[in-house]
Amino acid sequence: MPQPRIMLVSHYFEPSASTGAKRSTLLARYLADHGAGVTIVTASPAFYGEHVTARTGVRDALAVHEVAPPRAADRLRRMGLPGRWALNYLTCRRYARAIRNAVDRDGRPDFLYFCGNPFWYFGLGRRFLRSSGIPYILDFEDLWYAGGVTYRLGHRGGVRRILDRLLEAHAVADASAVIHTTPAQTRLSRARYGDEPGSKFWTIRWGYDERALRDIVPARTDAGALRLAIFGKFASYGDVDAAVLACSVAAIADDFPVEVLHIGTPEPGLERAFAEAGVAACLKQPGRISYAEGLGMLASADGLVLNTISEVSHPAKVYDYIGLNRPVIAIASTGSALGELLSSFAGACVATGPDEVTAALRRLRAGECRELQPGLDASEYSQQHQFGILMDRLATLERQGGND
Asked: 393: closest CA among 119, 30, 109, 3?
């Protein structure tokens, strides 16, 4: 079956180190590997500053149209315009020009596929639908942008929230499909846009990279201690969660040795929580290391720990945890999207307080739980499997003329 031609508009792309860049880069590779014509419109690496990672060659192997940072933002700020809005407006104009140039050079795609976050360029989809007849897809990835979702780090208010809602509704109205990464997000959008057909809103999950996990070798260095591992942000999502984990470790540290390995940018909030609980020596923070090395450390752990920023979203790293089939301790509510996902696994503990986490740690130490799920076939949780679902739906949509 011929695959639709996609123009992928993604501000974050390799070599950006952001999580969103990983999803869009893997999607571009998947499209290319499966015979779908793909063109990339993305930011110049100058946008990313020092927040970059090693290239895998995806950006160099595809047709890429880069958007350079605007030069006039400072002048507009001096004229009294809000700096961020001025920058977004100017950048959006550059994206529009890059999309036009890409269409002229590489041909008209079957779909414009916009990847968020950011979301301020989503409105370009409607613009090109009206001017060029190109259907567009919105991939939200999460719901930070959507008004009405309260996050633990706060939510946008005032004029910005009103404008966000208007811009979101404007973009959603003519989209051929709106993609979210959890069923909870999809339900929320269907309720918010009740006049739109429910079939327009799809759930295409995050997932682990099956290529990256294929050759992972566990990197155990100390078989005597109970080793827990955290991949990426934790205390940044909530100091309370850091305190819960630290108190749980303190409750068992006198009974047996415990090591908590935090892989990623060191977090002062995590250090503070462990120091206040009197178990600072249990926390190890090696800093930012390669993805493969980090996965090797996760594979060697007795249990993997995470939390979440929102009730309707969950961190992408949960899929790495599932792919490695290691026991998981999630500090989250049972009714959250993360709790909903993990509830079907025998080796997952969804907890809100230190007593529950402490009990889970004792079970790990006793050897009562060694896997997330015995006999688990994790393939349905891979990013590649999810992209396969996406491509089947896009192919069906393309045959229907861009309308579900």
From this structure: 3
Q: Tell me what pLDDT residue 209 has.
A: 92
pLDDT in tens, 273-306: 999 999 999 999 998 888 889 999 999 999 999 9
For the chain, residues classed under CATH 3.40.50.2000 are: 6-207+382-399, 212-379
Sort residue 278 into left (φ over 0), alpha (ψ -120 to 50) or beta. left
- H helix runs in 343-399, sequence order: 354-365, 383-399
**C-alpha dist (Å) from residue 361 to 58, 171, 259, 305:** 41, 46, 12, 11
Q: Which stretches does DSSP call E strand in 55-169?
A: 63-67, 111-115, 136-139
Question: What is the third-level CATH fold of 212-379?
Answer: Rossmann fold (3.40.50)
The string of DSSP letters for 292-345 reads HHHHHHHHT-SEEEEE-S-SS---THHHHHHHHT--EEEES-TTSHHHHHHTT-
Structural domain 6-207+382-399, CATH architecture: 3-Layer(aba) Sandwich (3.40)
Residue for token pair 């090395």? 293
Q: How far apart are CA 332 and CA 371, in angstroms?
A: 20
pLDDT tens, 175-187?
999 999 999 999 9
Q: Kindly report the pTM of this predicted structure.
A: 0.89
Q: Which among 223, 205, 128 is positioned nearest to 171, based on CA atoms? A: 128
Helix (H) or strand (E) holding 188: helix 183-192
Q: What is the pLDDT of residues 55-78, one digit of tens each?
A: 788 888 899 999 998 876 556 556
Query: Using CA of residue 28, residue 31, residue 33, residue 36, what is the dihedral sign?
Result: negative
Q: How many CA atoms lie within 13 A of 65 on its CB side?
A: 20
Q: Would you state the pLDDT for residue 304? A: 98
Structure tokens at 348: 């997952």
